[in-house]
Amino acid sequence: MATTQVLLTVVMGVFLVLVAAWLARMEKWSSYSPLGSGGASSETGTAHQEKPFGIVRWLTTVDHKDIGILYGVYSVAIFGWAGFTVLIMRFELLTPAQDLISASFYNALMTSHGLSMLILFGTPILAAFSNYFIPLLIGADDMAFPRINAIAFWLLPPSALLVYAGFFIPAIPASQTSWTMYAPLSIQMPSPAVDLMLLGLHLSGISVTMGAINFIATIFTERGENVSWANLDIFSWTVLVQSGLILFAFPLLGSALIMLLLDRNFGTMFFTVDGGGPILWQHLFWFWGHPEVYILILPAMGFVSLIMPRFSGRQLFGFKYVVYSTLAIGVLSFGVWAHHMFASGIDPRLRASFMAVSLAIAIPTAVKTFNWITTMWNGRIRLTTPMLFCIGFVSNLIIGGVTGVFLASIPVDLILHDTYYVVGHFHYFLMGGTVFAVFAAIYYWFPLVSGRMYQQTLAKWHFWLSMLGVNITFFAMLLMGYLGMPRRYASYNLTVGPVDVLTALHQAATLGAVIITVAQLIWFYNMVTSWLEGPRVPDADPWNLKEDGLRTAEWAWFEQKRETALADGGEESDEYCK
Question: What are the coiled-coil residue ranges (predicted)?
Answer without folding.
Answer: none
